[in-house]
Amino acid sequence: MSKFDTDLFVIGAGSGGVRAARIASGHGARVMVAEESRIGGTCVIRGCVPKKLLVYASRFPHAFEDAVGFGFSEVKPDFSWERLRDRVEAEVTRLSGLYRKGLESSAVAIREERAVICGPHEVRLASGETVSAGTILIATGGRPSRQGSVIGAELAIVSDDVFHLPRLPRRMIILGAGYIALEFASVFSGLGTKVDLVHRGDAVLRGFDEDLRKNAAHALAARNVKFHFARSFVKIEALADGARRVHLQNGETLDGEVVLIATGRLPNTEGLGLGHAGVALGDKGQVKVDAQSRSNVASIYAIGDVTDRLQLTPVAIREGHAFADSVFGNKPWTVDHTTVPSAVFITPEIGTVGLTQAAACERHAAVDVYVADFRPMLATLSGRDERTFMKLLVDAQTDKVLGLHICGEGAAEMVQLAAIAIKMDATKTDFDRTIALHPTAAEEIVTMKAPVARLRREH
């Protein structure tokens, strides 16, 4: 009989924590999970899923416009933000219920309350109950940063709040230029909101391939998003009519009904009691872990965004699975965090996998750059000024494909499939040997014949 109340205690019932709990239980472990919010975590409740539903909605106005070029009469359909918001919430609730059923069917004990760590093997629940556990897994994810240095920051909303807006704002001001800021700028602009985007830098999507960054900014500008680069917030004030006025550091002011601060996310470790157990944290508050997701305390592990490795839901799920197999299933394995595909769901969207051009040139002495830049077939009749951009990066010495970057309709779907080949170390010759599927945008990936640049490092 174990001296502990449970073999595994998971703090956080998001995608990663739920996967870890279910797999560990399947290996015979006694598992308990605590969640202070709603089961499903950021992705299901206030992230990927509801965001993608809003993205779909934001594309319908353009689809109605494009249809005229294909012989349909012009229509101006009514739109109800309230109806969309409530239907998205209903879908989120349904999915949360499925996550709950998954835990229950796996015999995982659920505690819907906050849990904090009291020691290497002890957790205290908000109700006062104390639970001892052989192993503790921290899967609390991240939270939006509110930019506390901005006067009046409490007058702004963060990404969590977007899905509960009482009405569609006529004008929105967004601070930030990462993927979350850009996605919501694209969504609300598509739905008819006038969007001003403020960024202290001079380009969007830091860390992405430079050509994708340029294409993203161009795509959003074409959708009427107004950029204010080399600017930052100083103060937000409430106006008499309920609107917000943003003061920029250069003296400019911007007025809007809603101000969204989207300047990144922080690991959700505040108040978890990690200090009581001696768990080491990084400079952002993230739990420092090794390749096995183990912290410096042998009995405490962490997965997902709370570790600040790769802030992507599928990565958290994979880490949770690896943890459970390794610790409770006698099947040790670790997660490979390289060559992970990702997307930015603006319109048209971005899909990317592998090295950026800058990183490729830094790591490889000879890089060939292949580019396709064309007007998609849909735009030929719709008349929309839209292009699809693709870039393939190849190691000229080994012929290995190093990266693929796409901006255009269906980019995420194309990159997901191409990521399989790139993960398998496919070469440019392998791509060339693949017969194109015509007429598709994706065929351009296997028909790029001559490099537009041959980049060579000087010795």
Structure keywords:
459 residues, alpha/beta, FAD/NAD(P)-binding domain, 3 domains, 7-stranded mixed β-sheet, 6-stranded antiparallel β-sheet, globular
The name of the CATH topology of the largest domain is FAD/NAD(P)-binding domain
Q: Averaged pLDDT, please?
A: 96
Question: How many individual β-strands?
Answer: 22
Q: Supply the helix-strand structural class.
A: alpha/beta
CATH architecture of the largest domain: 3-Layer(bba) Sandwich
Q: Which outline best applies?
A: globular
Roughly what percent helix? 25-40%
Return the CATH class of the largest domain: Alpha Beta
Task: Enumerate the spans where pLDDT stays under 50 for 5 or more consecutive residues.
Answer: none
Write down the domain tally: 3
